[in-house]
């Protein structure tokens, strides 16, 4: 076995690196321990740990993370670990209450989290301030309007602020889907209260919105953490909005029996009427909009959270702010005003990783109605609004993969040709050659000096004598009417496809004028094949059934159902939403491993010490009775416990690897050869313990060799070493190389 670096030099480098890594490992271990203790999770999701470390180092931070990705953890955990009180600026009173309730359920101290907003009386606000001054409160949620009040500013000047968290940060930008003018006043108020790191978080932001947020908050140098906007568990579907739309909606909801859902409408009137229509058709539903009495609105929301009703019908403009992880469907009865709004609202489905069906009813008349709403507004605002509407219309009418279109809108490329989780990818399309039409489009864009939008280009090619075409005398162009026989939708589809392919781009600063890219100019000089999908006429019109990840992930569906009933009864008794007690994934884990002691319960994902103490008795009793009545042999009962000497050997190996001791040195110290040591490590990893041996692999193996072996195991049907050696058939790959990478593979993907 050879090393890429030899003898003293490599060991010195490794030791220098080890000193830095050991510090990071210490912090990592501390953060994981705090995560487990306070929230009951064994590991961080995605970028959470890196975000938390950056914030705790005192740096401004910008987080782009889709709904369900765990944004709130990025400020909740550091608030508990840092000195002082974190200020969380949130636009929705309902969301504040939910998050405060959730934080209190994770802690023994109710004062750990508070909110200040217009719903509190003066005595209640004074009680909150007493807890803050006493050092009990680690998280304080405030609405931007409350933050700007002089008495609150004067009070907060007395408080040690650990950091400011700006939640729903897209509200800052006029290009965002939910612009709130008061959000643009956050920076000067923060300056008055006192300087501290800022973390801005949003579940949806195009590059333009991201720039606006950073500029307004004066955090242009913030480290940006951008998670993928892809929500693989969500199914996207657009249906034509017909005269029978109510019948279609009722049929859809009945297919979702027993599952919670949200239906969004454009107007308050529609919300009220549709809620009544659902109710008379034996679907439990309540309305929710800004024009309702605040108490009634709150009661309706609580009924939905407590699962007393199946459906909440709401206005898009107001926004729900419902922190409910098990919403199984989101319906847009009317087309939304922007793709950002659509993405944000559909993101409320399947936040726990379970199924989520996103259905949108679309009619061109809805777009026209929304365009009329723009009239009378300032010209710049109309331009922005109309451009956002055009993007939404393009999405609804497109035959392309809806996931690909959505991710492209947010600056992310989706490489798969077929996502399998949208209506377009489930339909049958034929590919039609569009090389000549694309060349025409690119030519016209160039002739117009890249100063006009897609609609104008299509009008010229179709020969439409619109007011703008005539005003600019574009009816005199050589290409005027050159594609008169083509359908407008086809021309728009080619433009959208060309943008995704990188031949055209939109200039946001000029409200969407089409620009040529170098690739587009190259295409015009030498056109190549360019195909677009067109729906096949022989495709049947069969209605797509509700899609998603159906069923629970529990091994015992009967126990899972019993635990859900227990959770519902407790939620009613304690007057808290069911998911605040335990979320579905935690119940699924209980119905798989059957914990019957507090120690076992605390090992369930999402069950920390605080939750086990608050709710554990009831769940342990139910599970224990169920196990005894059904004579179930639990996984824990089958676990073979090794004698102390053997356990101590394994523990010492785990500890040595945590300290990043070279494996050959470790084998020598244990009196083993490398084969014997690897057998021990394999036994540890295959029993479910995660080990990180990257530090050793990097010393002895070139990256491309490691990648080749790792890729083999990703696609292999078996992890047999001899089979792997035959398949790889490389002279420079040893059996030890393959075993080491297999350990890494099993540890990362199997544990």
Describe this structure in words.
By secondary structure, this protein is an alpha/beta fold. The chain folds into 5 domains: 40-226, Rossmann fold (3-Layer(aba) Sandwich); 234-425, P-loop containing nucleotide triphosphate hydrolases (Rossmann fold); 428-535, Arc Repressor Mutant, subunit A (Orthogonal Bundle); 557-638, DNA polymerase, domain 1 (Orthogonal Bundle); 642-750, Arc Repressor Mutant, subunit A (Orthogonal Bundle), CATH 1.10.10. The protein is built from 35 helices and 17 strands. The strands form 4 sheets. Strands 3-4-2-5-6-1-7 form a 7-stranded parallel β-sheet, sandwiched between helices. Strands 8-13-12-9-11-10 form a 6-stranded parallel β-sheet, with helices on both faces. Helix 5 links the parallel strand 3 and strand 4 (139-142). Helix 31 runs parallel beside helix 35.
């Amino acid at each position: 076995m050879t090393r890429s670096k030899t003898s003293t030099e490599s060991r010195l480098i490794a030791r220098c690196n080890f000193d830095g890594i050991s510090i990071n490992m210490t912090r990592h271990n501390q953060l994981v321990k705090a995560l487990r203790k306070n929230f009951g999770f064994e590991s961080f999701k995605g970028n959470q740990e890196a975000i938390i470390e950056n914030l705790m180092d005192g740096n401004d931070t910008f987080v782009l993370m889709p709904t369900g990705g765990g944004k709130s953890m990025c400020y909740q955990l550091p608030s508990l670990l840092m000195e002082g009180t974190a200020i969380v600026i949130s636009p929705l009173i309902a969301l504040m209450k939910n998050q405060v309730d959730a934080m209190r359920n994770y802690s023994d101290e109710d004062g750990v989290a508070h909110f200040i907003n217009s719903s509190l009386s003066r005595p209640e606000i004074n009680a909150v301030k007493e807890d803050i001054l006493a050092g009990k409160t680690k998280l304080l949620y405030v609405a931007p309007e409350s933050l700007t009040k002089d008495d609150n500013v004067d009070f907060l000047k007395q408080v040690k602020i650990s950091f400011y968290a700006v939640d729903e940060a897209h509200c800052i930008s006029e290009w965002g889907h939910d612009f709130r003018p008061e959000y643009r006043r956050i920076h000067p108020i923060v300056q008055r209260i006192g300087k501290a790191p800022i973390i801005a978080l949003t579940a949806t932001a195009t590059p333009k919105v991201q720039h606006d947020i950073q500029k307004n908050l004066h955090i242009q140098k913030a480290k940006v953490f951008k998670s993928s906007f892809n929500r693989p568990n969500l199914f996207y579907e657009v249906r034509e909005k017909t005269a029978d739309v109510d019948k279609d909606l009722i049929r859809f909801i009945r297919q979702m029996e027993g599952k919670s859902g949200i239906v969004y409408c454009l107007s308050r009137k529609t919300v009220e009427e549709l809620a009544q229509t659902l109710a008379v058709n034996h679907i439990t539903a309540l309305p929710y909009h800004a024009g309702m009495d605040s108490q009634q609105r709150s009661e309706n929301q609580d009924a939905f959270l407590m699962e007393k009703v199946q459906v909440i019908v709401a206005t898009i403009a107001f926004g729900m702010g419902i922190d409910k992880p098990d919403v199984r469907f989101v319906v847009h009865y009317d087309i939304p005003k922007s793709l950002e709004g659509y993405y944000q609202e559909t993101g409320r489905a399947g936040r726990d990783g379970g199924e989520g069906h996103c259905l949108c009813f679309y009619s061109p008349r809805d777009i026209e109605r929304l365009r009329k709403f723009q009239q009378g507004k300032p010209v710049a605002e109309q331009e922005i609004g109309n451009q956002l509407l055009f993007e939404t219309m393009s999405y609804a009418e497109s035959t392309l993969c809806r996931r690909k279109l959505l991710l492209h809108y947010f600056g992310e490329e989706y490489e798969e040709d077929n996502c399998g989780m949208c209506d377009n990818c489930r339909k049958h399309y034929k590919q039609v050659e569009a090389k000549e039409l694309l060349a025409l489009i690119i030519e016209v864009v160039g002739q117009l000096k890249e100063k006009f939008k897609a609609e104008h280009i299509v009008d010229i090619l179709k020969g439409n004598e619109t007011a703008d075409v005539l005003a600019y005398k574009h009816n005199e162009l050589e290409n005027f009417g050159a594609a008169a026989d083509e359908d407008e939708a086809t021309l728009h589809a080619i433009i959208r496809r060309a943008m995704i392919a990188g031949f055209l781009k939109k200039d946001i600063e000029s409200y969407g004028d089409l620009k040529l890219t170098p690739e587009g100019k190259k295409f015009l000089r030498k056109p190549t094949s360019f195909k677009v999908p067109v729906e096949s006429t022989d495709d049947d019109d069969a209605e797509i059934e509700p899609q998603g990840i159906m069923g629970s992930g529990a091994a015992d569906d009967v126990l899972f159902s019993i635990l859900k009933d227990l959770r519902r009864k407790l939620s009613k008794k304690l007057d808290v939403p069911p998911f605040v007690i335990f979320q579905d994934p935690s119940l699924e884990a209980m119905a798989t491993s059957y914990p019957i002691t507090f120690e076992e319960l605390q090992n369930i994902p999402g069950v920390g010490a605080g939750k086990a103490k608050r709710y554990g008795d009831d769940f342990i009793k139910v599970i224990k009775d169920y196990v005894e009545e059904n004579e179930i042999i639990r996984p824990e009962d089958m676990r073979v416990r090794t004698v102390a000497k053997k356990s101590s050997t394994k523990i010492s190996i785990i500890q040595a690897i945590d300290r990043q001791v070279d494996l050959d040195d470790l084998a020598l110290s244990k009196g083993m050869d490398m084969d014997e040591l690897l057998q021990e490590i394999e036994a540890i990893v295959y029993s479910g313990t995660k080990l990180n041996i990257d530090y050793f692999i990097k010393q002895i193996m070139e990256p491309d060799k490691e990648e080749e072996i790792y890729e083999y195991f990703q696609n292999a049907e078996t992890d047999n070493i001899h089979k792997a050696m035959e398949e790889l058939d490389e002279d420079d790959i040893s059996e030890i190389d393959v075993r080491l990478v297999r350990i890494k593979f099993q540890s990362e993907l199997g544990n």
